[in-house]
Amino acid sequence: MSCRVALHRGAGKVIGINLVPERLERARERGVEVFDLTSYDGELPGAIREVTDGRGPDSVIDAVGMEAHGAPVAGLAQKLVGLLPDAVAEPMLKNAGVDRLAALYTAIDAVRRGGTISISGVYGGAADPLPMMQIFDKQIQLRMGQANVRAWTDELLAQLVDDDPYGVDTFASHHLPLDEAPAAYERFQDKKDGYVKVIFKP
């Protein structure tokens, strides 16, 4: 949906990154240039710069959800590393938080100098390490916060009265009875059977 809104607002080149084939195809069908995360081994920011004339995108939206996929082991490792002397902790800390912050690290690396990163994902860890020198050096603007949905509802609904610029009428991948919710949530969480968005009918 972030890609759809960006296209509607005239963002120019819009890039979508995901590892779920159905999500990538949905974005591609609407004219988004997509990157399959599973096809890159740490080289995604470079590939993105290649298609943005070497600059990187003006803005990046991190919309991964709760801490990418969560990482209890990484979280524990971060806390343990925090008890070590700095000389020992620094190299270990660089690796301890990587998987739980992978999407945010990619955003920081990929965005152009002076660009903006908007975080609608949720990072709840108090010990999450950030590459502050890189953020400072690139003069990145960070925007984040709770989803202030009600602040935008009236404006968005007004755009849907006569038209459907965001494709919301067909956005749901599945329509199911409410009693199938537990099984549907499990399929959605496991990214099975093309579950992207589900509408439940009571």
Q: Would you kindly provide a brief summary of this structure?
A:
With 202 residues, this protein is an alpha/beta fold. The chain has helices at 2-8, 21-29, 44-50, 72-81, 86-96, 102-110, 132-137, 149-159, 181-189; strands at 15-18, 33-36, 59-62, 116-119, 141-144, 174-177, 198-201.
Description:
This protein has 2 domains: 2-164, 3-Layer(aba) Sandwich (Rossmann fold), CATH 3.40.50; 172-202, no CATH class. 16% of the residues are buried. The two termini are 25 Å apart. Helix 3 packs parallel to helix 6 and helix 4 runs antiparallel to helix 5 (86-96). The strands form 3 sheets. It has a 3-stranded parallel β-sheet, covered by helices on one side. It has helices at residues 2-8, 21-29, 44-50, 72-81, 86-96, 102-110, 132-137, 149-159, 181-189, and strands at 15-18, 33-36, 59-62, 116-119, 141-144, 174-177, 198-201. The chain is built from 9 helices and 7 strands, in the order H-E-H-E-H-E-H-H-H-E-H-E-H-E-H-E. Helix content is 39%, strand content 14%. It has 202 residues and is of the alpha/beta class. The longest helix is centred in the middle third of the chain and has 11 residues, at 86-96.
